[in-house]
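#struct-help
A.M.: can someone run this one for me? Single chain, 434 residues.
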Amino acid sequence: MNEIVRYQPPHADVPTRGIKLGRARPGVFGVLDIGSTKVVCLIARIESDGTPRALGFGWQKSRGVKAGSIVDMEEAERSIRAAVASAEEMADTLLKGVIVNLSCGQPESRTHNILWQVGGRAATMADLNGIMTEGVRRTQAEGREAVHSFPLGFTVDATGGVDDPRGMVCDTLGARLHVLDAASHALFNLGQCLHRCELEVEEMVSSPFAAGLATLVDDERELGAVCVDMGGGTTSIAAFAEGRLMHTAQLPVGGWQVTNDLARVLSTPISHAERLKTMHGSVLEAAEDRGEMLPVPMVGEDDDQIARVPREMVVKIIRPRLEESFELLRDRLEGSGLPGEMRRRIVLTGGASQLIGVRELAGRVLGREVTVRLGRPRLVRGLPETASGPGFASAIGLLAWAAGEGKPILELVPAPAHTPGLLRRGLAWLRERL
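D.P.: on it. Structure tokens below:
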């Protein structure tokens, strides 16, 4: 797979350290967050002050999607079409393409240290192209495709901390690259599904990265913090430091497992288990929970056959599952190689983070030295309050990306004209035949 590098020089008024700001998306655009529990479409434009304004909003219960991946093409197509149609009607705009979240294909982070021989001359754009291409080549394994490639810094001979080495004379140019890749077949299925919806994939943005852009404050991204997006089918992680994305990971647990536990143990329909979790879900035990009885319809029984269970029982079903989730999170962070200082700041977001007591439980499992807070996405003008909670962090983060936030000085982008990857080859094949 051949790739090209798009270079954007830093704006004179923007520091090269800290939060990276790239060029904002011109005109009206759409973003699409395809999750395991819901599909969200936002249509927006970037205002003169650099912030997005929502023009249209639509969401639909997700079908045909499991753990972020397409498992039923027709069901997923219907959910996406419904969400997009609602947003288009509100914005009075017809979308041809969207910026879409990446949560499928078991995305993985890889960090590469690359040494590039310059030979005593000034480093050029061709050298940077070669370094970035070498990083992607190393990342590629069978059936994987690079989605993001972020330079974490360059070294000019023995001098480190260089953000843009062009024009600097050196013998050896070193680079530390963070590459995020995913399974090519999963990307192809996602692209095919969107093509069936008459939409092009304009850009892909990692879901936890987008959630971090929406919920972390500038100091957290600069000093180091981990955003944990607790979604319906997965829990995803994005670690930031020095204003950059440093690491991502994904755990196969989410709010759906909590709902499923409630439905199985209480023998109640899944729809009611979801309602129980939303209305009465908690991981904190209280004395009054024993006396509070909750109505629970039984699977297969008539509507008037209602059992009653103490709220204490609901808490005892939910708590072990979330404890397990945070234990998996703790183990994954400890094995990530991230500095301990970065791992001590945790920001929880996503729909499953709204259960009562989640913050306290996370702090207890992750350790006393860890600071945990609940992150709400920033407010977006024109977006209804119902779409402004933690469950919409990833979608709002896609708007932030479109506004130019979080984009590195150098970013690898696919070159469709040169030996495209599996996703782009598949889309080209579809266009020729449909």
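A.M.: thanks! Residues 1-20, 412-422, 429-434 have pLDDT under 50 and may be disordered.
D.P.: also worth noting: The radius of gyration is 23 Å.
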